[in-house]
Amino acid sequence: MSSAIRIVAPSASSSTNTSPSHQPRPPPSSTTEDKKLCRNILIYGQCRFEDKGCTYSHTIHDPNSKPPTPTPNPAPTSGTPLSAKTAASAQVFVPGGAAPAAGGTTTPGGGSMGAGAQEFIPRRAETPALSEDAPFFTPASQRPQPPGLNPLASFQNKLLEAAAQQGAAASGAPSPVGSDAQQQGLAEYYSQMDLNGEYAALQAQQMHDPSHQGAYDYSHGNGHGHAHGQDPYFGAQGGMGHFVRQPLQYHLYHPLPSSAPTSSSTGSGHSSFFLPPSLHISLTSKSEATHATPSVDMKLPEEVGGYTGLMPLDKAQPAVTEGGGGWAGYRSWVYKAWKEGDGRAYCLRRIEGFRLQHEQAISVVEKWTRIRHPGLVAVREAFTTRAFGDHSIIFVYDYHPTSLTLYESHLSPLSSLPPNPCSGAGGIPERLLWSYIVQLGSTIKAIHNSGMALRGGLEVNRVLVTGKNRVRVGGAGVLDVLLWEGQGVGGYQQDDLLSFGKLIISLSCGSPSSVHNLPKSVDHISRCYSPDLKNVVLYLLSKPGPRKTIEEVLALMGARVLDELNASFVFDHDPRWAETGDRYLIKLFRDFVFHQVDENGRPVTDLSHVVMCLNKLDAGVDEKIMLVSRDEQSCLIVSYREIKNCIEGAFLDLSR
Ligand SMILES: Nc1ncnc2c1ncn2[C@@H]1O[C@H](COP(=O)(O)OP(=O)(O)OP(=O)(O)O)[C@@H](O)[C@H]1O
């Protein structure tokens, strides 16, 4: 059946025909009655976009009410019963208002099969949305984002906001660096990302703005700045057209928190059917970051040592370091790449222009690859390459999507963390700071016990925040290779402790440059933080000596270490949370399922028992079981259904 309709010139008779049955149809109006009911009204009872441009109807009509516009052949309403005669001669109802063509055959569904009949177009097909079930689409740019849910997105948003305030501050002539095609491709990329120009412009402005004194001064803070403001090549891109890549959220369903009260106090409204939005967004943005590809041709090699699909991760063009700080005076680039035959993403750190002099130097990386610790960005391998057109060395690390450095997360003027409650002071809250200190302390201990030293890894722009309050030291092994001397690590381990102390000072004072004025910084710590923190900092800054070890540091903060460990086992500051009420029942059930013993008390592993129990739990059957405490002094008789309810309740508590 063709959907084409012949276009014919209107005849005079047809144009003058004014009989009621030939009245021209009124132009399609967009009255509330015509509009489709907004699905948000159906699901939530309200639509947050009602006054913000939602084009759907927000009024629920009574289906029994009289249609507002009389039609030429009004269909009988429920209030006017049809006589047999009327019913026999009544026109067949045609969906969508299409009148049956004369002589046409009426299908059971009411459609006409006449030769001149229009093709039946289902109403769904008229809807531009992918499906009628799809939620009302709001462009990502207009959609309100809950603040702080996505650190990368909020960081980028802040970059853009800051840029808008600054205007096109960046200007200047091309820099002599990066004259080759690669540099050109990267420059285009950064300008498209709309990050580098703005970021550099903001930093440059802050460096020259006296009101920002005491704030971040990267080039002086750690001796290897990005040379903001002196990088006109990248800065010049700031004035180019804005192109902001939108996150892929159009196919997702993020239930917006409803302002309407939930139907029950347990919070088992519609939202309990979905992942919490923060978790959903976090998982999605990680997945998107992992699969992101450059939006312009980066002029990067297609393959480097078995890694493909290189995508730069630097947010600004890395600078050549003066004075041997940072990466020993070499420029470093960071890329995400896929390993061939492995299918996993990795992080490649390229040290540009480094020529390996000693083969043994790279063997240090072997040792690093054997260290696995949750506080360390795992080192995978290192190799030299000429794929970039120069002598480069590549260090391969695990890739942690959407991670930011400590500087980017907390110390940058664009970071989103609330300041320390200590009046007028920068620095991060003490509880978070201790969590970082304990994590980093345990990492240093693991590294030192393996006979290695972090050597420069303990800086605010080397430590990555890879999850909520999770930190990992990055860049391990780079300086071992770049500054290889074939000597022991004893002195470097002492340097690690000193760097650790400086890192704590930077975080507690809210600025990397605070390490240049130690008395003032220590005074700030003693005013705004606990004496424990001050003691740890003073110990770390003290003179190196054989008795100054990371074990001593951990002993000094013993109580805090326990606190941090306990935090994993308690909920809501209640150490007995898992020991009481419903949770105790769950613990006993866990023993029942996984820790069965025989009559002699020996463990028994019976997989069929495990599977059967979990299936019954999943189904929530009424069958009852007896749970016995470990000391065999008490027992409880409960049904799988009750246990299932307990588990769901505990899960809700934890995810609230
Ligand atoms: N292992 C990793 N996984 C995921 N992202 C990473 C990883 N290492 C670094 N990054 C990302 O790369 C960005 C640049 O890292 P880099 O270590 O170069 O920081 P930087 O501040 O540019 O310091 P520098 O250039 O002096 O080393 C960081 O913001 C971080 O988001």
From TrEMBL:
C3H1-type domain boundaries: 32-61
Single Gene Ontology MF annotation: zinc ion binding
Residue ranges, compositional bias (Pro residues): 65-75
Keyword Mitochondrion listed: no
Keyword flag Electron transport: no
Zinc fingers, C3H1-type class: 32-61
Subunit structure: Homodimer. Forms a heterotrimer with a catalytic subunit PAN2 to form the poly(A)-nuclease (PAN) deadenylation complex. Interacts (via PAM-2 motif) with poly(A)-binding protein PAB1 (via PABC domain), conferring substrate specificity of the enzyme complex.
Protein name as catalogued: PAN2-PAN3 deadenylation complex subunit PAN3
Gene name of the encoded protein: PAN3
